[in-house]
């Protein structure tokens, strides 16, 4: 069941059960913006119906990044006539290459999507992109009629293509902010993610931060998530740099994340180091095509 909450004037969070996903809905004078569409036609339709209970206006869609739970529902909105689908340029590239490979992740919850069988199971790609090549911070404004929404990219984080959506005092953060579960490091750039979180926490004009999953949080939560992540990275670095400290698995007991998440973080840090991808500049230079980690490499989550 979708649950719809109006968190500010004309600004809604549509929460659906699968993946505890949050979809944003911003109602303007002429159009309404839907932020993230779910993992397939089932969840997409649930979100679509919830949004239609709020407004009859034409929809504009934003995909906050190129992970399946945020864009596999696009086809449901395209079937309703939506043509504007916004994303980061590297999200488009990642989807073009790896969207089909991600179908395997939804076998249980969205079997039609997993097997490309039935209506609204095609991949609908973004048609509108943030400016630039994606290597630098960038922003654009989208006019919904009597209401402008700002879409922006701040740097590497949960992925290389995280888009934020700001309106009034509300910021939709995608999975850069994670509530109720440990952050997902699979495709992440942990060192830069810490920085990006600090930048987000420093954006004074926003008071409510809506994560991609979980419940909305305040600035202090974003700040804490950054500190916790910094601490985890430092502990891993210290334990891998000093073999006398014992195997990293032992040191993991002191880490803030559960063992599985810590393992993913550890592997990701080692992989980035082995590729020399340790700063925004290096990633922009070395991987102009974009980089989506385990999905790129075809590994299971
Ligand atoms: Zn994600």
UniProtKB/TrEMBL annotation:
Which Pfam families would you find in this protein's record? Lactamase_B
> SUPFAM superfamilies, per this entry?
Metallo-hydrolase/oxidoreductase
Q: Which InterPro entries match?
A: Metallo-B-lactamas (IPR001279), NDM-1-like (IPR050855), RibonucZ/Hydroxyglut_hydro (IPR036866)
Q: Which residues form the signal peptide?
A: none
Top-level division of the source organism's lineage: Bacteria
Chain residue ranges for the region called Disordered: 281-301
Residue intervals of the Metallo-beta-lactamase domain: 20-213
> What is the recorded name of this protein?
MBL fold metallo-hydrolase
Organism of provenance: Rothia santali
């Amino acid at each position: 069941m979708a649950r719809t909450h109006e968190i500010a004037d004309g600004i809604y969070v549509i929460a659906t059960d699968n993946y505890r996903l949050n979809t944003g809905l911003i109602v303007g004078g002429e159009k309404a913006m839907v932020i993230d569409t779910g993992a397939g036609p089932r969840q997409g339709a649930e979100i679509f119906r919830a949004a239609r209970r709020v407004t009859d206006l034409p929809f504009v869609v934003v995909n906050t990044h190129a992970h399946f739970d945020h864009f596999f529902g696009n086809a449901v909105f395209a079937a309703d006539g939506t043509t504007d689908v916004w994303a980061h340029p590297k999200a488009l590239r990642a989807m073009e290459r790896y969207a089909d490979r991600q179908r395997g992740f939804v076998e249980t919850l969205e079997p039609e999507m997993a097997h490309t069988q039935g209506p609204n199971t095609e991949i609908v790609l973004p048609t509108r992109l943030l400016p630039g090549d994606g290597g630098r911070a960038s922003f654009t404004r989208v006019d919904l009629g009597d209401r402008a929404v700002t879409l922006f990219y701040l740097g590497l984080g949960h992925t290389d293509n995280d888009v934020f959506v700001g309106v009034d005092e509300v910021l939709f953060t995608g999975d850069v902010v994670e509530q109720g579960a440990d952050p997902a490091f699979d495709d992440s750039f942990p060192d830069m993610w810490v920085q990006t979180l600090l930048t987000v926490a420093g954006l004074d004009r926003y008071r409510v931060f809506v994560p991609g999953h979980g419940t909305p949080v305040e600035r202090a939560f974003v700040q804490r998530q950054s500190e916790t992540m910094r601490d985890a990275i430092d502990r891993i670095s210290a334990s891998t740099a000093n073999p006398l400290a014992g195997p990293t698995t032992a040191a993991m007991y002191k880490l803030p994340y559960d063992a599985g998440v810590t393992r993913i973080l550890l592997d990701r840090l080692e992989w980035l180091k082995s590729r020399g991808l340790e700063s925004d500049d290096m990633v922009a230079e070395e991987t102009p095509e974009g980089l989506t980690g385990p999905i790129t490499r075809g590994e299971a989550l």
